Amino acid sequence: MERRREERRANDERRTTEQPARQDGEREVTALGRSVDLIVYEIAQSLGGWWAEREVSATVRQVTFEDDVVYRAHYDFSPTRLADRSYEVVRPAYLIGHIAGANPSYEGLSFEQIEGDLRAGWSEEIRAKHGDWDAVRQYAKEAFARQRLRVLRNSGEHRRVTSERPAEYGNGGSGQ
Prior knowledge:
The protein has a two-stranded antiparallel sheet with strand order 1-2. The chain is mostly helical. The protein has 9 helices and 2 strands.
């Protein structure tokens, strides 16, 4: 137990220090906050597996500044924006969706199929600080979709699926 605390403390210190530019030229947002740590911890406690691996905290939890800007803009211009909450308050929903989008176990699954896992980490403490899950789920869904597209692009799967699509649906004008 003590060893786990020490590892978590070391990871927290690494996350809060400035990271160099990534290989693809994007800078990372590394201090994701205690709320996101708590959500990931709660999901790991209830589900284990990928969520409980050290690599989740070491690599996947890193969000680029571009991602953060996109999520902020999505929230600011959302017709369902919560009038009484700033982006910073709902940001953990985006971040947990983003993290979930990188989970290889969720490959090929829709947001609705994995939502129960995310809901499991949205504890009473998180609800009190960031709002009820039903009020913020759309933000997690947006980030999940963005990250899944990135994973597909990076794996080359997107190009493969796109190039095979015409064969899947038969000839264009045959009416099949």
